[in-house]
Description:
alpha+beta
Amino acid sequence: MTQEAGAMAKSIDCYLWMNSDWAYLGADRLDALARRHGVTVRYMPVDLPAVYARTGGILLPLRAPERQQYRVAELRRWCKRLGIHVNPSPKFMCPDATLASHIVIAATDRGHDVVPLCKAILRAQWCEEKDISDADTLAGIVTDCGFDAPALMRDAPTGEVARTYAAFTDRAVAAGVFGSPSYVYRGELFWGQDRLDFLEEAVAAAQ
Length: 207
């Protein structure tokens, strides 16, 4: 096995929109899966509206009422199964996620474990009625996670971080991603937190 292939076998690429309720529902289980099997997860925030524009997706407000109603029904089922609360229609629903995404990327670049940060940002929107497009709100979340908020808020708007965000979005489309969360392991795509069992089977089979 080459060094590159070995690295691929030990890592999962997680493409997520920082507004994704489904990414929040899968976050704890993805983290636990990675720990069980000793693999790393590379968290790659993407511009999901841009992904949709290139892959035929439809933003939630533009979907047929029947599809919107079914989303709520599915969220309630999964929340009950997982014992996790999610408000299907929070006060600040799916605001601009650019700054939040940039902060996660900047934290990754500084070598931080971004799992708690991703979870906290997602939880803020879907459970705590917070506006994750607001800089002060995000700075508070960063601080609560134990990170240097002034440093990350300074790093987040840089051109380098913006280019990484765009590159993650391009990379997601190239990998076949069309929704959030999507997990790619050894070139195989698994869309949605309800596919984590299949992802774990693939990880286990490769070890």
